[in-house]
């Protein structure tokens, strides 16, 4: 049974292949899609694959109409965590008495979905038939008459995005790539003028012994960002920066011992994360590394503003820029939202994305989101006053290799709202820098130079991605999917210190939701980013958290 027989006339078509193997079958399917004049506008392929880090991996494709997700997970785990409506299933190599998969397939199957298989046990065929599949030719068809949960309608493909930092520029690009018209609204005259205006941001993964939700989310965001930036032209080319690697020094002997335990588990390939003992780390760095270090060879630094520029360039003619508009307000008028400035209405659309960091809580609809603005001062140092680094170096603080004669060190975590550079914050950065490079004279006599930005941070330090909850109408429901939302109002907020890597994946997640496409993350990870999670947490604790203090 060939999936190409059933996709004619479809707007989108989703194929689930249980064996990616060497990739030739998927490549052949994409080639057939390219050659078929009656092909669906969008082809989405989900395939189980070995040889990747655990989890879901969205792999950008040359064709804008094709999406490929590779899942390193067991068949049953993939079915449980996949958010999709599947039109065709290629079921290969399923042996043994397992019949539990049938329920999972039925949950995901679209009306009239087709299933091809090479061979199944009699009990497995019976399990599929019990879930509504009927044998047909060389496979089966999903013929269940049970009511299917209705997918929300895809909105008119016009959105207003408020905020032209990393979050907003990524949202604009991911929506424009799907054919949306986007009006990008920014109070400044240029993009990347707030927290995204720093000279350098670093990108690296997060490790933990128990591979917890923040670790898995950060890994997914980091790996997707590396692939996504290549589609924009690449770090060091279209994007200013360097994939030079990041070395993270152990804080102390106890931290090193925990790192050794993670390394001994053998979950990470060397290219992703390598633990180095003190002598080896010091030899590579050219500086002391008393307790050893992690080396993230694919990590590095990038100037966030150049990433924003690359994303906006990729939007093409579908993007309308409304910059320099000052402060704006948001009002629901009929079935649309109106963004208004001092001179009147700036834009109207049924869909609005708030992507302006902690300032977004100034809108009444987002006022109860528990976001805080944490002040971060970065110090700019003359490269001649510092050791020359082969990598980005970090521990409690970070130091980037010099670019254009300037190295960046920082950044502070302050609870005040002072936007000016101050000597006390510079001294804090210099003290941490000197401990980092084991030099009491590093940066001596440096003038007060740098930049202050404000990070948007949630209590759990995870982003807020999705439809904004209506706190006043929340009622007593205990399920995320049942919580009332403000119609057509979405958020991309709370990126804290990891905006470079959060921005691409979070924008892709939101765009996928708006288009009813398969999500690029496991369902439980996507739920962990839902802004409505704080409604449920507030109900359990009896209050809405409104402030955040760093550890």
From TrEMBL:
Kindly list the biological process annotations in GO that this record carries: methylation; tRNA wobble uridine modification
Recorded GO cellular component terms are: cytoplasm
Q: Which Pfam families match?
A: DAO (PF01266)
| Gene Ontology molecular-function annotations | oxidoreductase activity, acting on the CH-NH group of donors; tRNA (5-methylaminomethyl-2-thiouridylate)(34)-methyltransferase activity
Q: Cross-referenced Gene3D superfamilies, in alphabetical order? A: D-Amino Acid Oxidase, subunit A, domain 2, FAD/NAD(P)-binding domain
**Does the UniProt entry include the keyword S-adenosyl-L-methionine?**
yes
Q: What is this protein called?
A: FAD-dependent 5-carboxymethylaminomethyl-2-thiouridine(34) oxidoreductase MnmC
Read off the SUPFAM superfamilies from this record. Answer: FAD/NAD(P)-binding domain (SSF51905)
User: Could you say which EC number(s) this protein's record lists?
Assistant: 2.1.1.61
Q: Which UniProt keywords apply?
A: Cytoplasm, FAD, Flavoprotein, Methyltransferase, Multifunctional enzyme, Oxidoreductase, S-adenosyl-L-methionine, Transferase, tRNA processing
Record-annotated FAD dependent oxidoreductase domain positions: 159-512
Q: Which organism is it from?
A: Massilia litorea
